[in-house]
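For this section, I looked closely at a protein sequence along with its fold in token form, which I now present.
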Amino acid sequence: MEKKRSFTKGEQMNKHLVDNSDQKLTTNDGSPIFDNNNTLKAGERGPSLQQDHIYFDKLMHFDRERIPERVVHARGSGAHGTFEMKEDISKYTCAQFLQKGKKTDVFVRFSTVAGFKGSTDLARDVRGFSVKFYTEDGNYDLVGNNIPVFFIQDAMNFPDLIHAVKPEPNNEIPQAASAHDTFWDFISLMPESAHMAMWAMSDRAIPRSLRMMEGFGIHTFKLLDKSGKSTFVKFHWKPKLGVHSVAWNEAQKLSGFNSDYHRQDLWENIEKGNFPQWDLGIQLIPEEDELKYSFDILDATKFIPEEVIPVQIVGTMTLNRNPENFFAETEQVAFDPGRLVPGIDVSNDPLLQGRIFSYMDTQNYRLGGPNFHELPINKSSNQKHNNQKDGFSRMDILKGEVSYFPNSKASGCPYQAMLNGTEGYQSHKEVVDGAKVRQRSDSFADHFSQARLFYNSQSQPEKDHIVNAFSFELSKVSDSKIRERQVAILNQIDADLATKVGANLSITPSKELDEMTLKFARQNHPNYPLDKVKTEVDKSEALSMKVKKNEGTIQTRKVAFLVEEGVSKKSVEDMKKALEKEGAEAVLIGKKVGPLTFLEGGTVTIAHTYLTDPSVLYDAVFTPNGKSIELLKRNPDYFEFIHDAYKHCKVLAFAKDAESLLQKSFVEKDNGVILEKDSSDYSSVFINMMKQHRVWEREAARKVPS
């Protein structure tokens, strides 16, 4: 039988794209409407009539425009793109989209976990990083996060974790925040959460941009070759722009100035043609090495250090198109780790096993029934053919009288893939033998080694940020016993960490875990704590966000040029040209919008002011030359701008005449304060310092907020 051709996702979506240009207004059934302002009444001032089908058509749709928001990952941003496979891994997998040279349409949704749809982008939180591949063999969903591990080991605990981190049920406080009693009560009783808590309290939890964060599949999956041979695999997304964060104090201010900061950043950069890219990396573990390591590869609270198994880069994903409609695409997209294609299978990770049910179930509920896969954003590009029919929101029309299998009346169609000489989806033929039990392997019982590895791998500023984050969060916990329990857990990770956090909370860290913590730990492992394991590595360079030498970039970074009447056009243009050559953007900020006159004559239109654009929206600051300097000396908004940028460890550059402004500020000269008098090519010095992302050392030296 002739195989139907596959459609690209662009073609698929365009079939449902509606353009209202030059079209008559109609009801949802296409009936023309001549008056869309008045209900049908019995007389001009009489009662409205029940027979007004146009009104009911409009209002019934309006009443149902909001669907249940996601319980977790409610606040999201999405984009379309393509994935191109660049390396040959055919010896490991028969997945068609993972064959060298293949290009596959994708839709990616980024999200925060804890907050509601209306919460801020800049909450300290895990970020969802989920990719839907529209492959020729159907949809494959890689449902991950920007952190490679998770809080819990078994899906049975997932509702409890989310109940704990959500607003407290008695007062619905706090929103999109983990700094409260119920979350830390749960975490302090779950030693298995210690590793993830370290990541969540690190700078990874407050990314600079969605375009500048890593993605991870979290779980161990399986690749299957044509013969059915299995290889364990971990998936990684490595951003081309590097991995960067904001300062915590800066994140708090950003939430006030622009709670849509990440969403807007992603949208605007795609619109400008600054298409974000990530390399897909894989770590491969032969089946026979499953039990080789000090950690269990089925434990979602553990990762595989890159020094133990290197990450192989095999392909690149590019996001190049914004959604046409947020609700129809970003809100209705449905991810499910059970959406698999031939060549990929799941492992026995108990958290992953539970997610396979949970995601399917929640999408059925949230999107109104079992036909959510027929929504354009979820529809597979190769179409579907089966005998399922009816149900809420059914869109496909099943032809003919047959809706069962097997059948003869439709010549056995649709037929099983194997009957056509090809193989359909095959699960890994794994030998499984064991008693039915509710218990956990002792190989899952080491809760602190990798938390310690993560902390040891951080730079000193990153360690300081973790101390500050734990201190901030636990300071908001009202129950002193919870604080003491958590500090005791930190003491199992690193004594210096526990001592510093404890000092900020007036707690002397206990060397032993709390009795209640031990009680719950022993429910999973009766002999807990078990003997310490010897880890493969003590440090891993890949775990630190510190920019490696010669690896920094300023592409798509935004630099604030602080200007006033009489600013030197040459000073502005020289720096602007140098920055744009490196892919950065210069934005002029003045006291008011409208025309501004250059020192040399001519004008420029100012679209950004101190009122609308604080320093937290920019990556670096430049003050050019000109008569403008005298006006800036009398402008308190100017000094607030550079002071905040300085506090947040950003690079500041001052043209020659502008250096006099420093005398009126508390900005002190350091490696991140660039003066024209110090170098004939100070723009290059400015750019090279920007490539380091931040001057984090300034925090220790100046005692400025982190």
About this structure: Residues 153 and 300 are 6 Å apart (CA to CA). The domain at 558-702 is CATH 3.40.50.880 (Rossmann fold).
